[in-house]
Amino acid sequence: MAKALRTLTLLMGWACVAIGLFHVALGNAALPGAGSAGATVDSWGRFMGASFVGYGLAWVWAARQRPIPAQAVRWLAGVFLLGGAARLLSLAVHGRPHWFQIVLAAIELGLPPVFFWLAEAEERSGAGAAARRPVTKSA
Fold first, then answer.
1. Under 8 Å between Cβ of 5 and 68
2. pTM given for the model
3. Which of 67, 72, 88, 104 has CA 20 to 30 A from 82's CA?
4. Domain range holding 104?
5. Is residue 93 classed as helix, strand or coil in its secondary structure?
6. Largest CA distance in the chain
7. Is 135 part of a structural domain of the chain?
8. What is the mean pLDDT of residues 21-26?
9. Does 104 reside within a domain?
10. 71-113 residue pLDDT tens
């Protein structure tokens, strides 16, 4: 389970970094249907792309820890799940977006439970339990 969690966490991190850089570089052109949205949306999209790079780097950081901090994975997956919930709210308020946004929502709602499950399995394993034990100094 630890290898699966590490691999998926690292993949998630680098995917978020790549997607974020794509949005920073392309602005409105990175969003289907937003090419003519104007300077305000372009500025917001590039800022959010930079934020997504930081979010991805947090995933990469978590993947590089030994053992992987299950609590950090839960928080990061929770943020991802919140993004999917936000897309559902947008769907309810404004209707169906571009089809690709529906695909992203499915990923954002479906992947976090996998991370929660893997993080729980890691935490229950000896490696995860060792990470929660406090370090004590010997006399």
1. yes
2. 0.84
3. 67
4. 2-29+37-126
5. helix
6. 68
7. no
8. 95
9. yes
10. 999 999 999 999 999 999 999 999 999 899 999 999 999 999 9
